[in-house]
Structures are given as structure tokens and as C-alpha cells.
Amino acid sequence: MTRKRHEREEEGNGLRELGRVMPPSEFYQPAPCLDNQYEADSLLRGYLAWRVPAPMLRALHSELGRFGERVVTDIAALGRAAEAQPPRLVPYDAWGRRIDDIVVSDAWRELDRISAVEGLVAIAYERANGELSRVHQMAKLYLFHPSSSTYSCPLAMGDGAARFLEVHGDERTRNAFEHLTTRDPARFWTSGQWMTERTGGSDVSATSTIARPGESAGVASGAEPYRLFGTKWFTSATTSQMAIALARIDGAPAGGRGLSAFLVELRDATGALRGIRVNRLKDKLGTRALPTAELTLDGAPGTLVGGAGDGVRKIASMFNVTRVYNAVAAVAGMRRAIVLAQDYATKRTAFGKPLIEQPLHRETLADLDAVERGCFLLAFHAVELLGKEECGTATERDLGVLRLLTPVVKLYTAKHAVGVASEALEAFGGAGYIEDTGIPQLLRDAQVLPIWEGTTNVLSLDVLRAIERTDAWTAWRTDIELRLDAIDQPSLVGAVEQIRARIEALARSMQAARDASTLETNARRIAFAIAHVSASARLAEYALWSATHPAGAHDAAAAADSLTRWLASSS
Ligand code: MFK
Predict the structure, then answer these.
(1) How far apart are CA 373 and CA 197, in angstroms?
(2) pTM as predicted
(3) Which residue out of 259, 312, 331, 403 has the highest number of ligand 1 atoms within 8 Å of its CB and is therefore the one to mutate?
(4) Counting CB atoms within 10 angstroms of each CB, which of 183, 360, 424, 534 has the fewest?
(5) Distance from C-alpha of 7 to C-alpha of 17, rounded to nearest angstrom
(6) How many A from CA of 269 to the centre of ligand 1?
């Protein structure tokens, strides 16, 4: 108290000297800052050194070092500008003609150009690093996402569409594939994914959009022999050049099996929409720069892809890619929130010392960091397996693990992204709740992650679908036990035993639920337990590697600490 009064007196004298009357407190809190997001990220650097061979690592080091600087300078500025100028629908031109123009900011367009030039989608299809190309691509996406005002969404959709066309497309869709995967900004396309209708986003089988063969819709058949009629309730990235849409060919059976997938090119050569009306843009909690729209399809031309029927199963090749994007975006958002909170904690003083020196605050931040580390390693495990699948190098077991992990990593990281963002906001006190600090956007944008691309419950049911209808459970269990067998360091024996016990407990509780016919009721618990155990094993493997390899020494203490914290939690 005495010290504070003394300070106030000194301050008062200083102000009198300046000859003006000032309020007694002239304190201004320094804002949090961001350093190069590659160089500052010891886990990302350690993970890449662990998983990637030396020549590739050297190339990545230089590329990501450069990109890590861009995402806190020009790309961050573009993201802020795009956020400040959200898309706007102009339904009519000055003369009353219906145009349905969605006007986006220059910044949003520039983010598109940068995405092409940086190869944010192309890297995955050039496959210059073979099965590790997805790791390369997703490491870049991880840096890009939190600065991009969710430009990562059109990229995810475009990438998912590219994969769908790669698997199910043919000569008629070759041109679209090339546009989606080019680095040439003048030719680069993104895509929408049009599944959701008024009947629901989860139960896609209720889709009511009809596809009529051209002749019956009054047009000649050709490259696009179908015309689509219906309403799509949520169409993300509506300024994209194309979309993959689900529709039921006239007369096809009801339910999911009767659906087919169509490639729709949205505009003609003049830029006018083809048989599409934009009913309105959605007014969303977050992702405000992203043009999400409600559309009426009134004869939009479509090309059937992959043959008639079984559209849900076919489009799974698309949403399995976008779900991995979702997981990478989730961990990227967590990292950004934590880094800002950590920096702030060095600058903000309360009760006589910087927050970072307050044991409870430091502990809270360390717990958040451990959550992000586990989620990061989990998400990138799925990334590695996706890369293997696409390059044809995945074993049957890898494919089984990927089938199970895709919904698991999506649902788990998304849920934690919201929790971490919320806690990080709190670490700023009131400032975390004030819009022009930029901090609330972290929470708003995190909240979409558990919702789109399949909610937590729907994905938990997908986990059950994978367990009950495929051999994914056996593949996952065998894989994780083999990896645990290889962890032979005495300091990690306790951790490995703990993880094995959790696998055993999970298998027992699953069997009990099966016997009691309560698998569905327990689906979320099962999915979370699989995620927690999977991440534990990855954390233990990484702790071993970083403790025994010079390239991991910089992160060894953090790796050991995060494993301990992770195992102390149960979800
Ligand atoms: C940076 C972030 C990027 C993210 C951007 C996000 C943009 C947001 C845009 C959107 O949100 S678009 C809307 C997203 N909507 C969804 O993701 C749909 C959520 N609902 C589901 O996933 C349901 O589980 C599903 C629609 C798949 C259920 O449909 P059905 O017709 O009741 O499923 P059914 O009969 O169980 O499965 C049909 C077939 O597909 C089966 O194959 P078989 O016929 O051979 O047995 C399934 O095994 C197969 N299948 C389903 N899900 C699969 C799958 N196969 C592989 N992987 C999967 N995930």
C-alpha cells in the first residue's frame, strides 16, 4: 500500500512538471504479440524432425520458416481485413436484373491467391514427398489457418473435392481436378460441398434435391446431362467455382443409397450463376469472412460422378479429407490461443508480478499446452495415414486405423478446441471478452469446429459404425499395442503400463455395452476414450524420441511434462 502511494506521488509530481493535469493512472497494457509461428513452435519443429527424413526436413525448415513469418505479417493483416469486411449479397443490379452477386473483400481474394501460390492444396496432389506430402501440406495449413479468417474452409472443401474426383472422377471431371490442384492463381478453384438441406445436416439420407436427366428438364444431354432442383440450406464457400452436391436422380429409391454425387460448375463464362439463386447469406456466430449461403437450385447443370447411387459412401472420400482438415484447424486454433495467452502472461502484471510467475496461472497454461500437444500428435497421426492411403502405401492395418481415427480425431480435437479457446479468453480477463482485442474471434471460430463436418454425436456413431461394420477396432488395437511394445525406456514404463490398462478397460467396457445393448448410448464415451488412449501412445512415443535424439532435445522436457499431464487427465 505504501509503495503504491509513493508511486502515485511520484507520478503526480512528474505530471505537474509537465504542466498539465492528467488522471492519476497512465498505465496502458501492452498487447500480446506473435513471433514467427514456425520458429516459436517447438512441438511442430520436433514433430517434423521425428517423422520426416533429413533432406525433406531441411527443405521444410526453410519453407515453413518463411511461411511462419508470413502468417504473422501479411497473411495476418489480410485475415484481419477480411474479418472486418464480411461478404455481402447483392441480389439485383442497378437495373433490377437478378444477379445474386456475393461481394467479398479484396483481402479474401488475396488469401485465395496466396493459397494457390503457396500450394496449400497442390502440395497434397503433387506428392513430391510421397506419402509424407500430406504432412508437408498440413504443417503449412496449421500455420495458415488461424491467420486466414478461415480461408482454410474453401481450401478444405476444394481439397476434399479433388480427392473425391481423383477416386471417382473420369475424363469429364479432369479439368475440374486440375483447377483444384494447381498453383496458378489465375486457374485455381475452390469447391463447395452441398449436402445439408432444410431436413438436416446430419441425416443426409433425407436429401430432397432431385436430379433430372437433361432431356426431361428440357435440355440436350452432353457433358452435364443432369439438371438439379432443390434447396441447399448451408453451402459453405459459396463464392467457389464449383461444388460437389448430393441429389436423388428422379425415380431413385429413398434413403442414402438412392443419392448420387454431382459436380456443379456454378457460373458461366460471363460469371453469371447457372440455374442457382442465392436466397441469403447466413448470419453466423463466427467464421464471419466466410460466405455461407442458402441456395435454390433451379436447373443447375450437374455432372454425375462415380455412377448412380451410393452417393453417401462415395462422398465419404471427400468428407474424410475435410474432417482431417477440421482436426488440423482445431489444433492450429488451440496453438494460436495458447501462444497469445502465454505472451500476454509475460506482459500482464497482477498482484505484484507478471502472470507467468503466478504458479496457478502458469499451471493453467501448462495444462492447456498439454491438451494441444496431445491433440496435435493425434491429428497428425491421421494426416500421416491419409497420406499413406492416397499414395497406396498403407497396409490393411493402416487403413483400418485411419477409418477409426478420422471421426475420432475430428470430434475430439474440435471439442477441445472450444475448451482451450474459452480458457485462453479467460486468461486475458475482461480483455478476452472485448471484440477489438481480436481475442473473442478465437472462441467464435472454434465453436464451429464440433458442428460442421459432422457433430460430436454423429461422429461418435460413425466410430461405432467403423467398429461394428469393419475390422477397424482390431487394426487400431493391434497397431497401438505394437507401438507400445517398442517403447522400452525405463522412465516410460509406468506410462506404458497405464496406457495398456486403459486399453484393457476400454475393451471391457465396450464389451459390457455390447452385451447390454447400450453401445449407442455409450458411443461418445467410447470415441473419447479411443482418442485419449491414441494420443497417450503418440505422446509417449514422442517423449521417447525427443529424449533419445539430439534433434528432439529442445522439446524433450516439454514432451515428458505433457505426457504426465495427459495421463493425469481422463478425457
Ligand atoms: C478448416 C476447417 C474445414 C472444415 C470446413 C467445413 C465446411 C462445412 C460444410 C459442412 O458442414 S457440409 C455438411 C457436413 N455434413 C456431414 O458431414 C454429414 C454428417 N452426417 C454423417 O456423417 C452421417 O453419418 C452420414 C450422412 C454419413 C450417415 O448417412 P447414412 O446414409 O445414414 O449412412 P450409412 O447408411 O450408415 O452409410 C452409407 C455408406 O457410407 C455405408 O457404406 P456401405 O453402404 O458400403 O455399408 C457407410 O459405411 C459409408 N460411410 C459412412 N460414413 C463413412 C462411410 N465410409 C467411410 N467413411 C465414413 N466416414
Answers:
(1) 36
(2) 0.94
(3) 312
(4) 360
(5) 15
(6) 33
Pocket-testing residue among 152, 153, 204, 321, ligand 1, by greatest number of atoms within 8 A of Cβ:
204
Residue pLDDT, tens place only, 292-317: 999 999 999 999 999 999 999 999 99
Residues 353 and 324 in one domain: yes
Residue 345 to residue 323: CA distance in whole angstroms: 33
Beta bridge partners of 102: 89
For residue 472, being part of any structural domain is answered with: yes
> Would the CB of 202 count as within 6 Å of ligand 1?
yes
Residues 423 and 379 occupy one common structural domain? yes
Contact 419, 337 (CB under 8 A): no
- For ligand 1, atom 52, name the residue with the nearest CA: 316
Nearest atom, ligand 1, residue 204 CA: 26
Give 517-564 pLDDT, tens digit per residue. 999 999 999 999 999 999 999 999 999 999 999 999 999 999 999 999
What's the CA gap between 258 and 204, in Å, rounded? Answer: 11
- Whether 525 is in a domain gets the answer yes
Residue 536 to residue 1: CA distance in whole angstroms: 48
CA of 407 to the centre of ligand 1 (A): 10
- Residue 177 grid cell: 481436378
Q: Is the CB of 195 under 6 A from ligand 1?
A: yes
Instruction: Please give the Cα distance from 252 to 304 (Å, whole number).
Output: 14
Report the chain's mean pLDDT, rounded to a whole number: 94
* 420/463 same-domain check: no
